[in-house]
Amino acid sequence: MSSRSEKIKAFNKNRIHSIIPLKYAAMLENAFRFYRGSCHLFYERIAALNSMPKSPTGWISGDLHLENFGSYRGNNKLVYFDLNDFDEAVKAPVLWEVVRLVTSIFIAFQTLEIDGEQAVNMAALFLKTYGTTLATGKAMDLDPRTAKGITGDFLKRAERSSADELLKKRTLKKGSKLQLNTTDERHFKLKKELKSDLISYMEEWLSQNNDSPYNYRVKDVVYRLAGTGSLGQKRYLFLLKSTQRKDRYLLIDMKQAYPSSLIPFLQIMQPKWANEAERIVSIQKRMQHVSASLLSTANFRNEHYVVQELQPVKDTLKFKLIKAEYRKLYQAIDDMAMLTASSQLRSSGMDGSATKDELKAFAIKGHWQQQILDIAKEQAALVGADFGAFQQDYRNGAYKTRHESKAKDELVLS
After folding, report:
1. Residue 194, Cβ neighbours under 10 Å: how many?
2. What is the distance in angstroms between the CA of the first residue and the CA of the last residue of the chain?
3. What is the DSSP string of 66-81?
4. Any bridge partners for residue 217, and if so which?
5. Going by C-beta distance under 8 Å and a sequence separation of 6 or more, which residues neighbour residue 412?
6. N or C: which end of the chain has fewer CB within 10 A?
7. What angle do CA 297, 301, 306 make, to 5 degrees?
8. Quick one: DSSP state of residue 294?
9. What does the alpha-carbon distance between residue 200 and residue 194 come to, in Å, rounded to a whole number?
10. Res 159: pLDDT
11. Taking the domains of the chain in order of start, what are their residue ranges?
């Protein structure tokens, strides 16, 4: 077994054992999916890289790649396109965020066998727009009125989408009662005791938490399978029903919060967060223009969770879309670069992060852009090698577990 696989297995050892094989299977799909599921390997290399240009300290989402931007409905009921995953969020050199995203461009294009020159053009555009936006010192945002191209399409769909459409996809009727559909490949049954405890806890949370929706009761809950890097963390989907409005339902996602995988590779002092969920939610609120609907935290059985509404439409730039529409990506890449810089400007000067003036002064220098381009190309090649070693070790049985043969219906959690 390669040293890479040893690190991957050690990193995932505290995840749910019956779900870990599903994560490894997902990572086996292609190099891009592997990259999403092995953030810790990437930052171990970046932290040790002498050629990495110095940059100011700022707030970063930590796992920025092409699929971690998306459309969503904010807590003000309007829709936005923005960074949308903050599980790994920390205070770090701002270029760590940038090199993570640019590397994802090269990996995506290599995996899809798109001409390498196109990847260079996309990466160069991202770096130019990121630097230009940072140099203005003014954070911007995207909504349906201003967005164009693929991003505009995402936002228009999000505006038109309804909770009823989502409900039809995720639920089924049993007699006169609505319940979550456990034939959905993303939904797993829970043991009776755990299910009962979760329902009781959520009922209490709804009655006591200021961020919770009012006048709702819990009707059902399942384990929810979603993401790549977070597969194996505890994650639950709740079906809520209004006590005042007939046939009014809500779907609530509750996801276990783990420590950021960047922390072992950082020397920068972090704030003393109350818990990991508080870290994630606090940084998300700083970096996004408007937070996702019902974003909050929870503590179930002494474990901390991030809570938010499951969105009717939460479009992201899906990997397969890149090959079909890559010529239309220029506008989307330009938008992503602007939003990345804006998220850092928006959260500047908080808890020891660089001020807007410091970020502006850094951006104006510009010499770092070619350096990041070269590093990202190199890192993409190294990720390809990591993926090859992972495939070989997987074929040789290094990732087999006694849980792997279990049927979906048996993947219940205690």
Report:
1. 17
2. 31
3. TTSEEEEEBTTS-EEE
4. 241
5. 188, 189, 190, 191, 223
6. C
7. 20
8. T
9. 10
10. 74
11. 3-161+318-395, 163-260+266-311
* pTM of the complete model: 0.93
The SS3 call for residue 337 is helix
* Neighbouring residues of 14: CB distance < 8 A, sequence distance ≥ 6: none
Mind listing the pLDDT tens digit for each residue in 231-278? 999 999 999 999 888 888 999 999 999 999 999 999 999 999 999 999
Token pair, residue 88, equals: 């790994």
pLDDT, tens digit, 9 for 90 and up, residues 288-303: 999 888 899 999 999 9
Cα–Cα distance, 315 to 71 (Å, whole number):
5
Pairing of strands 69-73, 79-83: antiparallel
The residues with which 222 forms a beta bridge, in sequence order, are 237
Classified as helix, coil or strand, 234 is: coil
The tokens for 297 are: 């935290």
Question: Residue 379 phi/psi, 5° resolution?
Answer: -65, -35
Give average pLDDT by consecutive 10-residue segment, the chain, 414 residues: 91 93 95 96 97 97 92 85 95 98 94 87 96 97 86 79 80 89 92 97 91 88 92 96 87 96 96 98 96 92 95 62 71 94 98 97 93 98 96 93 52 51
- Residues pairing with 240 in the sheet: 218, 250
Residues in the chain: 414
| 388-392, Cβ contacts within 8 angstroms, sequence gap of 24 or more | 389/2, 389/4, 389/5, 390/2, 390/4, 390/5, 390/8, 390/27, 390/28, 390/34, 391/28, 392/2
Determine whether 44 is exposed, middle or buried from the number of CB atoms within 10 Å of its CB (0-12, 13-18, 19+): middle
